[in-house]
Amino acid sequence: MASPEIVQCLTRSAMRRGDLFAEAGDAIDRVVFPTSGMISIVARLEDGDAVEAAMVGPAGALGSAAIFGPALHVNTAFCQIPGKVCSLPIALFQRAADANPRLRDLALAQEQYILAQAQQAAACNARHQLSARMATWLLRAADEIDTDGLQLTQEYLATMLGVQRTSLCMAAGQFQEQNLINVRRGRINLLDRPALESQACECYRNLRLQYRRLTPQRDVEVRVAVG
Ligand SMILES: [Zn+2]
């Protein structure tokens, strides 16, 4: 169980879309656990655009690499889907890992899963069609936050996928005509998961497999470890 000291030092706060958690090069000074909503880790480009490399939802953590020693954020991280987070100073997270070695294993698994997402995103962006990438992204995001209703604009989704908004709107329009999704102001609802899965690229299946391999029981154990 979590020590009273750790529970006392957990900072709980709301996160709104666009809230910045880290910029590339920042020292990691805290671990952030979303309890709802989602954080995106993105590669920022010189023209101001940012393409998503990984998602961190309620089963994950941002900054867990620092459990192994001083570390830096290698990319930008911000709130993609509004929700709530708990934050813990890195020194306390390290102390918790000393008392519970399983937490260290989970932190390693979390970092490996972020790396797996980034590597899959590189292949996906280079080789797969926009409609398949969009289906994959929507399914992954819905899995991360455990809901079929995503509080998300098409503009944000286009940015995350690294495409023009007009291209994204066309692809989303086709999905709406097929009754796969419903797009309303600031919200995308998944209406037919099996059909969306049939449209998704292999990246969705690959990442689900990686998740199961790397993080068995992760969400449950992290919650127990940090309270
Ligand atoms: Zn793909």
Structure summarized in a few sentences:
This protein is an alpha+beta fold and 227 residues long. It is 48% helix and 24% strand.
> Overall pLDDT, averaged?
90
The structure class reads: alpha+beta
User: SSE order, as H and E?
Assistant: HEEEEEHHHEHHEEHHH
* Topology-level CATH name of the largest domain: Jelly Rolls
Which ligands does the model contain, each kind named once?
Answer: zinc ion
Main sheet characteristics: 5 strands, antiparallel
Unreliable sequence segments: none
Rg, Cα atoms, Å? 17 Å
Shape: globular
Strand portion, in percent? 15-25%
Count of DSSP H/I helices: 9
The CATH C-level name of the largest domain is: Mainly Beta
Helix fraction, binned, reads 40-55%
The total domain count is: 2
Distance N to C terminus: 7 Å
CATH 2nd-level architecture of the largest domain: Sandwich
SSE map:
Elements (H helix, E strand, L loop, with lengths): L3 H6 L1 E5 L4 E3 L7 E15 L5 E7 L19 E14 H10 L1 H27 L2 H16 L3 E2 L3 H8 L3 H13 L3 E4 L2 E4 L2 H7 L2 H13 L3 H9 L1
Antiparallel strand pairs: 1-5, 2-5, 3-4, 3-5, 6-8, 7-8
Bound molecules: zinc ion.
